[in-house]
Amino acid sequence: MRSAPTILHLDMDAFFAAAEQAAKPSLRGKPVVVGGLGPRGVVSTASYEARRFGVHSAMPMGQARRLAPNAAYLVPRFTVYRAISDQVMELLGRLSPLVEPLSLDEAFVDLEAGGSAHDTSSARAAGERLRRDILAVTGLTGSVGLAGSKMLAKIGSERAKPDGLVVIEPGTERELLGPLTVRTLPGVGPATGEHLRRSGMTTVAELAEAGEDELVRLLGKAHGASLYRMARGLDDRPVVSERDAKSVSVEDTFDVDLHDRARVRSEVERLADRCVARLRAAGRSGRTVVLKVRRYDFSTLTRSETLRGPTDDPAVVREAAGRLLEAVETTGGVRLLGVGVTGLADFTQEDLFAQAAARTPAPPPEPSAPVDDEPAGAGREGTPVAGAAVEADEAPAERRFPAGHDVRHAEFGAGWVQGSGLRRVTVRFEEPGSAPGRVRTFWVDDPELELSEPLPLVAAAGQSSCPASRPKSRVESGSDTEEGRSAGSGAGRLSP
DNA sequence: TCTGGGGTCCTGGCTCTA
DNA sequence: TCTGTAGAGCCAGGACCC
């Protein structure tokens, strides 16, 4: 616990939704919901305007649509958010070498380690300067909490939202925390919160009064002891700038439950390939393969298998995941499948054998060769990898225009997909620096229309423009009131 | 139309080994 | 030889976070 509030927590305000509003002038000041738009999608982020209707993160999308039927519904564009996040992290890096990103939109910074603050006033000045810089560089707002510990800095940024800064002076933490609900503390989710409530504890002060022994009895050694410390305002976790990933996984929820065992098997193989692709992209290998299955009734089980050594071979992971699937009952239907790898390393079993071979002038026959790790047939004998097979089997073709994605039209310039369906796509022609634009509808196979790279939210100095913002006499007027509706009902010119 | 995706950490049971 | 015990590693599940 520090004697000065030199730990900073930054949390961007409604990040994904705010980025979309910045990119799409017609959405500013309007309810925007970003998330999965499929039948089983959930809300990733809701703009503050959408939150007024009761929409919030993790809410099923269907429920959100009932609460806010006129909101704009968009799919996440992670490449855009990552680019903005990189800009923000770069600004944080100027404050200190000790920056701990928690996600794309959140990070801790140790201001003292960077020499950018040593007391309350210098910390506050650094925080305010950071907020101004973020706004100037990204066009977005972030909220800042400053305190002597990570927990309190995070509570500070929550209290500062939206677009604010809160300093929690060291020495005031017990008084501040006491009346807050136990759910305020990190590590207390719905289950622990309910557990504590049943034991008569709903506030942080009641946790502190209960004592460590009681909390350990209720919650176990690690959780109980750490919660007791947090309840007393004690948190000495350091800001850690580099953290190695411990696992890599991919999972898919299917729009409709899978019943066909062969299809389940092929999906597992496809996921294994995707998982290994990510593993390799990170330059890592893994030793334990994990299969995750969520069944029709939402019951979830995991099965894992530890190999003799780490691997990044797709065939090995595919085979292991397949073996794990054999032991899982899937009648009734499968809602979600996932494949992951843990026990990460920077080398593979194959590397070790290669090294051993290099050290030995005349290598003997390999008695310890990983026979199990080289399954016959996988990826050989002309058998395509599962992912490729699946892609090849997919229906060819109709071009996809996901809601919210950027497009460019040869005549009308830059815009974004407002909706699509019935082989039509509705586009609003506007971009970050322009005034709200007009809507046009095209056939999905219109050769003049194509998906394009996202535009920067804040134009670089001297950079201008927007084809879409130029008046176009030939453009017919479109509806300005149809955010997020499908193109099927969209107004505007239908070409050709 | 209930309930995504990618993670981390902890706990408890089981098995193996010394 | 048998039994008890402790620790390590593996495995599965739960909870939590963003």
Give an overview of the whole structure.
The longest helix has 21 residues, at 261-281. With 496 residues, the protein is α+β, with helices and mostly antiparallel strands. It has helices at 15-23, 48-51, 61-67, 78-95, 120-138, 150-160, 173-177, 190-198, 204-210, 212-219, 221-231, 261-281, 314-326, 349-359, 386-393; strands at residues 7-12, 32-35, 43-46, 72-74, 99-103, 106-110, 142-147, 165-167, 247-258, 285-295, 300-311, 334-345, 406-409, 413-421, 424-429, 438-443, 449-451, 494-495. Helices cover 32% and strands 23% of the residues. The protein is built from 15 helices and 18 strands. The termini are far apart. Strand 7, helix 6 and strand 8 (165-167) form a beta-alpha-beta unit. It is globular and about 65 Å long. Helix 4 (78-95) packs antiparallel against helix 5 (120-138), helix 9 packs across helix 11 (221-231) and helix 12 (261-281) packs across helix 15. The protein has a 6-stranded mixed β-sheet with strand order 17-13-14-15-16-18, with no helix packed on it. Among the domains are: 176-231, DNA polymerase, domain 1, CATH 1.10.150.20; 246-355, Dna Ligase, domain 1. The structure holds a DNA duplex (18 and 18 nucleotides).
CATH topology of the domain at 246-355: Dna Ligase, domain 1
- Counting helices, strands and paired strands, the structural category is alpha+beta
Question: How many helices does DSSP assign?
Answer: 15
**CATH superfamily of the domain at 246-355, please?**
DNA polymerase, Y-family, little finger domain
**Unreliable segments (pLDDT under 50, ≥5 consecutive)?**
360-396, 462-496
User: What is the mean predicted local confidence, pLDDT?
Assistant: 82
Please give the CATH architecture of the domain at 246-355.
2-Layer Sandwich
